[in-house]
Write a structure and sequence with these properties.
244 residues, 42% strand, mainly beta, 2 helices, 8% helix, six-stranded antiparallel β-sheet
């Protein structure tokens, strides 16, 4: 996952822990102090593994904010609550994402988790977005050359910001040309709109490949174009808007 690679870049540059206990992000929540069967990856992702042989469910505490299932973007908890028998099939590790987050992902349609080499060399990325209760989210993309240890090395840094039904892609530092990525798709969980017909724009250009599921509140936009034949890339400031 590109998000995980970004965490290691931050750890190398700033010493930020990749794996964190829950209380590091929620220090005012006493319920997090003794939780040793779930952990955070960075500030956004919470992992709740099955630790007992034969168990088919897990006990999960969700700190106070919205939480989503990582891959289908369905909201599973409002926060500040315990789910004592959350399903844990044998082939699944429960991973949740904090509302208000944007995760950059290199995603294989086959569902196969890509290798680190593919993450670094893939020309495309997908953005998985999980809205908070105000309809906002923030995230960052960091791409470097994959091997330099110098903290002053070139890095392509991009910020993602969602608010008021508007998604901004904001390049901060450009890095080198081969660090630029095509934004192949944007998936947003927590989108509340009346009806099922949604119009999505990139600047002044209407997008054609749009799916909105009102029941799950998930909006997916593929093949984003800023003008005919020109795909959205991470080196250009782009604004994506949507409305019913």
């Amino acid at each position: 996952m590109l998000y995980l690679y970004n965490l290691f870049i931050q750890a190398n540059s700033f010493g930020t822990p990749v794996m964190q206990a829950l209380f590091m992000q929620f220090p005012e929540d006493e319920m997090t102090f003794d939780k040793d069967r779930q952990f955070l990856l960075g500030s956004a992702v919470m992992v709740c593994p099955t630790l007992e042989e034969g168990a088919e469910s897990v006990w999960v505490y969700f700190p106070a904010c919205p939480w989503y299932s990582i891959w289908d973007l369905h909201r599973v908890a409002n926060g500040g609550e315990v789910l004592e028998n959350y399903p844990a099939p044998l082939d699944t590790i429960n991973v949740f994402v904090r509302g208000g987050s944007v995760l950059p992902v290199v995603w294989e349609e086959s569902g196969i988790i890509p290798t680190a080499e593919l993450v670094l060399n893939s020309p495309d990325i997908s953005l998985f977005c999980y809205l908070d209760d105000t309809g906002a989210a923030l995230g960052t993309l960091l791409i470097d050359d994959g091997y330099s240890e110098n903290k002053d090395r070139e890095v392509h840094r991009v910020q993602f910001k969602i608010s008021n039904q508007q998604f901004e892609i904001i390049p901060v530092t450009m890095g080198t040309k081969d660090m630029v990525r095509v934004v192949s798709s944007v998936s947003i969980g927590g989108v509340v709109l009346p009806g099922g017909d949604v119009e999505v724009m990139v600047g002044d250009m209407k997008q054609c490949d749009v799916i909105y599921d009102a029941s799950s509140r998930v909006l997916v936009v593929k093949q984003l174009q800023s003008e005919p034949g020109k795909l959205v890339t991470t080196d250009t400031h782009s604004i994506v808007t949507w409305k019913a």
